Amino acid sequence: MNTHTVKKDEIQRKWYLVDATDKVLGRLSSQIATVLRGKHKPNYSPHLDMGDFVVVINAEKVRVTGKKYSQKVYYHYSGYPGGLKVTPFSRLIRKRPERVIEKAVWGMLPHNRLGRKLFKHLNVYAGERHPHQAQKPEPLALD
User: Fold this and answer.
1) CB burial class (10 A; 0-12, 13-18, 19+) of residue 63?
2) For the domain that residue 24 is a member of, what is the CATH number?
3) What is the C-alpha to C-alpha distance for residues 51 and 123, in angstroms, rounded to an integer?
4) pLDDT of amino acid 4
5) Do 105 and 32 form a contact (C-beta atoms < 8 A)?
6) How far apart are CA 81 and CA 110, in angstroms?
7) Residue range(s) defining the domain that contains residue 28
8) Helices 25-37 and 97-106, interaxial angle, to 10°?
């Protein structure tokens, strides 16, 4: 038996639409990361970009469980003494709701050049409107 290696021209890409209304952030993000990575396909190969494109709408309506709305914080360190910036979830969801989903998905992708390429296939929008109607995205069935 020979092992079949997937070639670049054999990769079929689709566009999926995800409505984040009342979805739990962590579960939603892990399912989006799976589709971006291509793990849902039978011919998945970990070293190739086999994933599909994902458009997420209604990012402002995503929810978190427990006390995360008031207690979860995002850290950014500039590298300089005293350069730690702390942003609470409650402020980030009000000002930049897209960033909440982007940060959650980014943490679930590989942290190398493949992960950076896969992350570009994610498009997140705060409201209902998105500029990807021409790609005819299919609704993604999430658990």
Assistant:
1) middle
2) 3.90.1180.10
3) 14
4) 85
5) yes
6) 29
7) 13-64+96-139
8) 60
Please give the tally of structural domains in the chain.
1
- Cβ neighbours for 23, distance < 8 A, ≥ 6 positions apart: 62, 63, 142
Nearest C-alpha neighbor of 40 from the set 73, 16, 72, 62: 16
Tell the residue number behind the tokens 């209304």, with chain if given.
21
Q: Does a structural domain hold residue 70?
A: no
Asked whether residue 71 is domain-assigned, the answer is no
Residue 114 included in any domain = yes
Q: Which two tokens stand for residue 103?
A: 């940060």
If we measure between CA atoms, which residue out of 42, 58, 36 comes closest to residue 10?
42
End-to-end CA distance of the chain: give it in Å, rounded.
Answer: 36
pTM above 0.90, yes or no: yes
In the numeric block, which tokens belong to residue 86?
A: 């702390």
CA dist., res. 64 & res. 22, Å (int): 9
Contact 16, 135 (CB under 8 A): no
Collect the ranges in the chain with pLDDT lower than 50: none
Alpha-carbon distance of 108 to 118, in angstroms, equals 11
In a domain, 88, yes or no: no
Return the SS3 of 88: strand
